[in-house]
Amino acid sequence: MWQNSNITEFILLGLTQDPLRQKMVFLIILIFYIGTVVGNTLVIVTIKSSRTLESPMYYFLFYLSFADSCYSTSTAPRLIVDALSTKKVISYNECMTQIFALHLFGCMEILVLILMAADRYVAICKPLHYPRIMRRQVCLILIVLAWMGSFMHSISQTILALRLPFCGPNLIDHYCCDLQPLFKLACTDTYLSNLLLVTNNGAICLVSLTILMISYVVILHSLRNHSAEGRKKALSTCTSHIIVVVLFFVPCIFIYTRPPTTFPIDKMVTVFYTIGTPFLNPLIYTLRNAEVKNAMRNLWHVKTMSDS
Q1: What's this model's pTM, rounded to 2 decimal places?
Q2: Considering the chain, what percentage of its residues have pLDDT values greater than 70?
Q3: What is the pLDDT of residues 203-215, one digit of tens each?
Q4: Do residues 122 and 134 lie in contact, with contact meaning Cβ atoms separated by under 8 Å?
Q5: In contact, 120 and 219? CB cutoff 8 Å
Q6: In this predicted model, what pLDDT tens digit does every residue of 228-244 receive, in sequence order?
Q7: Adjacent-strand bridge partners of 11
Q8: Residues 153/200, Cβ–Cβ less than 8 Å
Q9: Maximum distance among all alpha carbons in the chain?
Q10: How far is CA 297 from CA 26, 56, 201, 280, in A?
Q11: Per the UniProt record, which residue ranges are transmembrane (predicted)?
């Protein structure tokens, strides 16, 4: 990988330097990561195996769960290993790869959430046109475009990181590689780079959140014309989506839409949206969705019957 630096490795300071707290970090993050992988894998397998979950909403939920698993995997395993390591070393190439993965799957999650909101808008506000608008070919094209957009965003952020010259300290005051911690180590003026970061990441977060909130306001307003049962079902689905959107976007906006300053709380905020939110998403979507819960019960019943 091309390198604009004399530094070949970085040292991550992690979440804490205290040995006892590091053991606590190891245990907590391990539990969260296992829960994330198991929960999202269960959602993926359930959607793939169930004929009752073939609507576009579950098609998009499949990719959200996949993005969640990958997004958490981009940071959690290293954090778990580093919690028990005395020296948390990450090579330059590994650091750039982590930045690429973090932004690829993070952006993919944002775009899938927008597609899910669009799907709910069409289903509730344009029910007669829903089968024609949200047919499988259209959903496939939308997902492909989401992957392409995520890839382009991730490449732009990785190039921004690769252009940073490093010639001094190599201590990253964080538990993972991201642009803002690296800006503090660069031996050049990073004002323009930070402006590009805020313009790119900040704009994606703010514009996406605005679009999502407007769409859900329109959806909730249109529910007045539905039956009581239809309102209850749609409201349950939309509430789940809104909870996920708020949990993901508020921390992202806090990190990426401000001047080039860092706060002690930044690490915990990053933990929340890179590890906490992917852990909570499958719980939110399954506990509040009767169709997913029934499909999981049927899948479990079929498995137990085949084993006996």
Answers
A1: 0.89
A2: 94
A3: 888 888 898 888 8
A4: yes
A5: yes
A6: 776 777 777 778 788 88
A7: 89, 171
A8: yes
A9: 67
A10: 32, 21, 40, 20
A11: 24-45, 57-80, 100-118, 138-156, 201-223, 235-256, 268-287
Distance, in Å, from the CA atom of 181 to the CA atom of 246, rounded to the nearest integer, reads 25
- Residue ranges of E strands in the chain: 9-12, 89-91, 171-172
User: Taking residues 141-145, what's their average pLDDT?
Assistant: 97
pLDDT tens-digit readout, 10-45: 999 989 888 899 999 999 999 999 999 999 999 999
Confidence at 302, pLDDT banded by 50, 70, 90: low
State the Cα–Cα distance between residues 256 and 202, nearest whole angstrom.
5
Residue type, 39: G
For residue 61, give both structure tokens.
Answer: 């939920």
DSSP notation for 159-225:
HHHHT--B-S--EESSSS--HHHHHTT-SS--HHHHHHHIIIIIHHHHHHHHHHHHHHHHHHHHGGG
Q: Is 202 exposed, middle or buried (0-12, 13-18, 19+ CB in 10 A)?
A: middle
Structure token digits, residue 5? 């630096």
Six-digit token pair at 109?
């999650």
How far apart, in whole angstroms, are the C-alpha atoms of residue 193 and residue 227?
52
In the chain, domain spans: 9-303
Nearest Cα to Cα of residue 218 among 117, 109, 115, 111: 117
Q: Show the tokens assigned to 244.
A: 């996920």
Place of tokens 């982590």: 98
Structure tokens at 63: 């990719």
Q: What is the pLDDT of residues 37-95, one digit of tens each?
A: 999 999 999 888 887 788 898 999 999 999 999 999 999 999 999 998 888 899 999 99
Tokens for 149? Answer: 């957009």
* 11 close to 87: Cβ distance less than 8 angstroms: yes
CATH classification (class only), 9-303: mainly alpha
Q: Are strands 89-91 and 9-12 parallel, antiparallel or unpaired?
A: antiparallel
